[in-house]
């Protein structure tokens, strides 16, 4: 709550005039993140390949989480989702929305022969979501791991998972 209040420049009492509960605040944060997610997924459509699009999307997510200082809040919300059913439902819905967006792009790329994942699509989706969430929660740039290093590691690891047809995995950073 302190981080949320600091971010919007309000006291907790003033914030609760706009939101009836902590769960409503988290739902509003999730909705704002969902709008940002839509912008990130547009990067996939704009990229020359699904692989480059996923890399662009992942890096945009990592930059957004780090530069906006959202890693700690994201971690707190995920921790709260383990204790609070309403927050869990909000988090699960957000994750399902992102997963479904990925599913559409990945299915299309698999059908086109652009990628040949090493695991079935449903497993791949869970793995990709875990990688993204793990990087976001750990805020790797704040640990002096550069964006270039993160991108290189993502290219290699996601290249191994997705097996893109063009095979130009770690050459572009």
TrEMBL record:
Annotated transmembrane regions: none
UniProt key word Nuclease: no
Keywords carried by this UniProt record: DNA-binding, Transcription, Transcription regulation
A family per Pfam: TetR_N
Segments forming domain HTH tetR-type: 1-37
Annotated PROSITE patterns: HTH_TETR_2 (PS50977)
Domain of life the protein comes from: Bacteria
Name used for this protein in its record: TetR family transcriptional regulator
Taxonomic lineage: Bacteria, Pseudomonadati, Pseudomonadota, Alphaproteobacteria, Hyphomicrobiales
